[in-house]
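Exercise 7.
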Amino acid sequence: MEFSIGDRVFLRVSLPYLKTADPMPMLRPPDLVSSDEPGQIVGIRHGNIAEVSFRRGIFLIPLENLSKNSI
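Solution. The predicted structure, written as tokens, is:
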């Protein structure tokens, strides 16, 4: 599936942790984002990692864990 900046996305699976997109990334608990919460891609990094903006912050999520449709 192709993703681009500005796409609305959802988590496909619950992740063991979330990594912030801050200059000094931190690991955060996975319950900050639910699978039915929409996010928006604000950046794409090398290694197929997306910067996704959710209600509680911007997190680094592998593209294979994202979907354009709610689960």
